[in-house]
Design goal:
mainly alpha; Hypothetical protein af1432; 42% helix; HD domain-containing protein; 2% strand
Length: 269
C-alpha cells in the first residue's frame, strides 16, 4: 500500500491554503507555523513534536517541589520502550502509535483530564491534530493494529508509576484511589520516572524513534521512505544536521532475541 504524504483529497480546501490563511496559528520550534484548526501533514516536523513534547509538563506542572519537570516526551518514550520490551508491539507502526499518542500536545499543551472533559472544543482540535500527525507518518487503521484501548491501558498503568514518583500526598493517594476504583486489579508498569530536562527528554524521544525505525519490521514497508524523510531532516539542538548513524540508541533487546522482520503475528493483551 503506497502512502502519499500530500494526499490532499482527505482534507478540506481550507487546509490546503498557506498556514497564514487558515486562521489562528502558533509558532513552532523551527520557526514554522501550526494551524490550530486546520493543520495538514506537510506542517508536521519531528523536531517540532520532539521539542514541544519535551518542554510540555504533565499534570499541569503541579509536581513535588524537588521535581523540575516531567514531560510528555518522557512519558511517551517510557510507554514505548515498555511496550517493546514486554512484547506488546512488534512493528514500527504500532510502536510509533504509542510514541506519538500525545503528539498533539506539542502544540496544544497537556490539559489535565478533569479540565479537558469540560472543553469539548479542545477534544475536537486534539483529535484532528492527532489524525494529521499520524497521517504524516503513514500510520493508518490498516497498518496499525494496536488499538486506542490498548494504548490507553498502558497509559493508565504508567500513571501509577508517575504518581508514586512525582505527586505529593494527599493527592497521591486520592488519585490512586480514583484509578483503582475503575479497575482494582490494575498494576503499575514498573518503569523508571527520571524527570529528564527538556534536552534530555528530546534526545531520549528521538533515540527511541530512531531505534524503532531501524530495528523493527514495518507492517507496511511502503511508509518506510516517508519516515526516513522525517528522520533525515532532524536537526541538532544547535541547528546543524545530525547524522542519524551517530545517534546513541539503547537497545532494549540487548539480552533478548530481536524480532524477525518476517514475524507478522498479531499481539493480544
Amino acid at each position: 500500500m503506497k502512502h502519499n504524504l500530500f494526499n490532499d483529497a482527505k482534507y478540506d480546501p481550507v487546509t490546503l491554503l498557506p498556514v497564514t490563511d487558515r486562521g489562528d496559528w502558533v509558532a513552532t520550534s523551527l520557526g514554522g507555523m501550526w494551524s490550530i484548526l486546520n493543520p495538514h501533514p506537510r506542517d508536521v516536523f519531528i523536531d517540532d513534536l520532539a521539542w514541544g513534547m519535551a518542554r510540555t509538563c504533565r499534570y499541569g506542572g503541579q509536581l513535588k517541589h524537588d521535581v523540575e519537570l516531567y514531560s510528555v516526551a518522557e512519558h511517551a518514550t517510557a510507554m514505548t520502550w515498555w511496550a517493546i520490551e514486554n512484547g506488546r508491539v512488534r512493528h514500527v507502526e504500532d510502536a510509533l502509535a504509542i510514541l506519538l499518542h500525545d503528539a498533539s500536545e506539542a502544540f496544544y499543551g497537556d490539559i489535565p483530564t478533569p479540565i479537558k472533559k469540560m472543553l469539548p472544543d479542545y477534544k475536537i482540535m486534539e483529535d484532528r491534530a492527532q489524525f494529521v500527525i499520524q497521517d504524516a507518518f503513514g500510520l493508518t487503521a490498516e497498518n496499525t493494529l494496536i488499538t486506542k484501548k490498548e494504548i490507553k491501558e498502558i497509559d493508565v498503568r504508567i500513571r501509577i508509576d508517575e504518581r508514586l514518583s512525582i505527586i505529593e500526598e494527599p493527592a497521591l493517594s486520592a488519585g490512586l484511589n480514583v484509578t483503582w476504583e475503575s479497575d482494582p486489579e490494575l498494576e503499575r508498569l514498573g518503569v523508571e520516572v527520571a524527570c529528564m530536562l527538556p534536552s534530555q527528554a528530546r534526545a531520549s524521544f528521538m533515540s527511541c524513534m530512531t531505534w524503532v525505525c531501524e530495528n523493527m519490521p514495518y507492517r507496511d514497508p511502503a511508509i518506510a521512505p516517508l519516515i526516513e524523510m522525517h528522520l533525515d531532516r532532524v536537526l541538532e539542538p544547535t541547528g546543524g544536521k545530525k547524522p542519524r548513524k551517530m545517534q546513541v540508541v539503547e537497545n532494549p533487546y540487548e539480552k533478548n532475541e530481536v524480532l524477525s522482520h518476517d514475524d507478522d503475528a498479531e499481539l493480544t493483551l
